[in-house]
Specification:
Pfam families: BAR, SH3_9
Oligomer: single chain
Helix content: 55-70%
Domain BAR: 24-238
Strand content: 5-15%
Subcellular location: Golgi apparatus membrane; Mitochondrion outer membrane
Strand order of the largest sheet: 4-3-2-1-5
Domain SH3: 281-341
Distance between the termini: 62 Å
Protein name: Endophilin-B1
Number of strands: 5
Shape: elongated
Number of domains: 2
Radius of gyration: 33 Å
Number of helices: 11
């Protein structure tokens, strides 16, 4: 949250400059206490770690919850130590809307059934997203926040102690001794930043693993849905299958392989082949890709993998061809067909 930055009112770089300046003022230019280069480098490294941790944490929070109003609300609930109200995420809201709409259209209709199936899948993806957000908050954001609000604040307090170790009323040697003691404490705290980097690396690995699981689950849910929609007797769903198959060729997810028919169009299936057929008066053999139930007497029901004859009829919609199986004839959707040579 942006509030994390504001809560760190003291800046390590400013405190360091004040420490050096205060030393010069109290001890004089000729006898000033120099902070060694190692301590200075450690301080710069800690400041760099703090700034980058804030930046990564802020952008991760934006990724997990893009709505700034919701982020502010969750922050306030956290500060008030109250439980954040459970709300549906976008996938779950969409899924619920699809299920309700599908129920109104009728689960027995192709469109209504498809909407319900899509809605259930969207809710599954929403559940996977919820698990991803919870895992990321616990294993990634919390350790980052603990560093900013815990370890780094302790470092700032120690640096402040170096400044206040000087007093005009104190003996110079006592002042120098106290400064050296505080500097050593600060050095030890700053050297602990290395272990912080190692810990944050493990947290980053956990975050990547959670993100991989989320996308893999979502991908598998969509693959399963695509298979279910492929058998629906609807031009609407078949058109979606065509676009999904065409676009799927550029997607590579090795951990969850798709069948060859889903990843790429078959060699015989192409817009040019159908275009040539529509411009000719002949007929071609075609293999049926999916089962299709005729929606009316003018259509022909199909069985996956059967071979039929298809031809173009003047005035027919470009998404359809005339199919023949023996003495049976009827319209068939081209997206269910693969033209054969």
């Amino acid at each position: 949250m942006d509030f994390n930055v504001k809560r760190l009112a003291a800046d390590a770089g400013t405190l360091f400059s004040r420490a050096v300046q205060f030393t010069e003022e109290k001890l004089g230019q000729a006898e000033k206490t120099e902070l060694d280069a190692h301590l200075e480098n450690l301080l710069c490294r800690a400041e760099c770690t703090k700034q980058n941790t804030e930046r990564i944490m802020k952008q991760t929070e934006v990724l997990l919850q893009p709505n700034p109003n919701v982020r502010i609300e969750e922050f306030l609930y956290e500060k008030l130590e109250k439980k954040v109200p459970t709300r549906m995420n976008n996938h779950e809201v969409l899924g619920q809307s699809m299920i309700e709409s599908g129920s109104e259209f009728g689960p027995g209709t192709a469109y209504g059934n498809a909407l319900i199936k899509c809605g259930e899948t969207e809710k599954q993806i929403g559940g996977a997203e919820r698990e991803f957000i919870q895992s990321s908050a616990i294993n990634f954001l919390t350790p980052f926040r603990n560093f900013l609000e815990g370890d780094f604040k302790t470092i700032l307090v120690s640096i402040n102690g170096m400044i206040h170790s000087f007093s005009a009323e104190q003996d110079l040697r006592m002042t120098q001794s106290e400064f050296d003691r505080q500097a050593e404490i600060t050095r030890l705290l700053l050297e602990g930043v290395s272990s912080t980097h190692a810990h944050h690396l493990r947290c980053l690995t956990d975050f990547v693993e959670a993100q991989t699981t989320y996308y893999a689950q979502s991908y598998q849910y969509m693959v399963d849905l695509q298979k279910q929609l492929g058998s629906f007797p609807s031009t609407f769903s078949s058109n979606n299958n065509q676009s999904s198959s065409s676009g799927g060729a550029s997607i590579s997810v090795p951990t969850i392989p798709l069948s060859a028919s889903m990843l790429s169009p078959s060699p015989g299936l192409g817009l040019s082949g159908f275009h040539e057929l529509r411009n000719s008066s002949g007929s071609r053999k075609a293999r049926v890709l999916y089962d299709y139930d005729a929606a009316g007497s003018s259509e022909l029901s199909l069985l996956a993998d059967e071979v039929i004859m298809v031809s173009s009829v003047p005035g027919m919609d470009s998404d359809w061809l005339m199919g023949e199986r023996g003495t049976q004839k009827g319209k068939v959707p081209i997206t269910y067909l693969e033209l054969l040579n």
